[in-house]
Structures are given as C-alpha cells and as structure tokens.
Amino acid sequence: MTTGIDSTPPASAGAQNGVTPRRTLRVAVVNGSPNEKSKTMGLVDVVLQTLARVLADDGVTIESARIDTYRLGPAFTGAHEREGVAPEIEAALRRAEQADLLIAATPVFRGSYTGLFKHFFDLVDQYALANKPVLLTATGGGEHHALVLEHALRPLFGFFQSLTVPVAVFASAGDFDGTTLLTPRVHGRIEMAITDVRELLVARATVT
Fold this sequence. Notes:
disordered N terminus, alpha/beta, seven-stranded mixed sheet, 22% strand, Rossmann fold, globular, two-stranded antiparallel sheet
C-alpha cells in the first residue's frame, strides 16, 4: 500500500529551477492484527493521514508499506531463524528494516502484543532497527490495556536500540465506530506524537 504518490520532478530539476526539492519519508507499518478489517488499522490510518498532513508543509511526501503478519502464511509461521526464509518473508523483513519510520501496531491479547507480531520481530536483525524512529500504537478493549505500550512494546524496541517516539498512542473499543476512530482525544495524541518528532522525520526523509 502506497500513499502520497509524489509527482514532483526529480531533485536535480527542481534545484535548477530554484524550487525546493521534494522529500520522501518511507514508512513501514507492521500490523499485528489477525483480521483484515480491524480497529488497529483504523488507528493506523489516522496516524498515516496525520503524518502526511503535518509533513506536507515541509515538502515531505509519505510512502507507506503495510506488512500484515497474518497474511505472511506458513513460510513465516514455520520460520525459526532468519537464514533461509522464503523470499517474500525476507522482502517483508527488509521493508521494515529499511524504512525511515516504523509504525508498530498491535491489538492487545492477554496483556501483550500478538504472537504473530512478536514472531515477526524475532526474525528482524538485532541491529537493523538501531536509532530508527518507531511510533508505538495499540488497541484494546479498555483503557487498562494501554499499559501494553510501556510494559511490552517499549521494552521490545529498547532491545533493538530503536528511537521510540516519546508519545505512544492507544485507543480502546469505545473510541471507534466500527473501525473508524472518532475520539478527539486520541486524534490529538496522534498529532502530538508526530509533532514532537517532526524535525527528526524531516531530516530522515530522502530527497527525490
């Protein structure tokens, strides 16, 4: 899935015409939900929309790739180590490792992230996410599930030495109409999370 398709001329042409070069931020979403339509991805959709809007003023376009762990199949669930994984699994892992920003998205199961979500990161190279910005997002049945952000997700990416965005985002079932996020408070938190690291994201974007 790609959003914000950039139709701006190449950077060299823009520079020759005195136009500020456009930049592209590569965003990878690792989706731990087991369902095609989910509140988790409803939350991520708002994150991506907000990200595109906030960075547009800086001339940054968003290019997003969504990795649905439940779609990766037996070649993924049966993999015990990175070496020798199927080409499509290797491609998914590299999309996450090479992104400028990683969005970690999971529903809360049994007080933590889903098993498929954890298995994906069990296969990610130990040092590939070092110093990479990671925005933590989660959904759950009630507000008490928000603890997953600090008690499970942040320690996981601490292991990878990632730059987890200071403001993490949680939404409970009551914040949605179906899979559509409604609550202004959650929208505001998303805005805050992105605005806090806006300069960092602009700096990581690639000139196109």
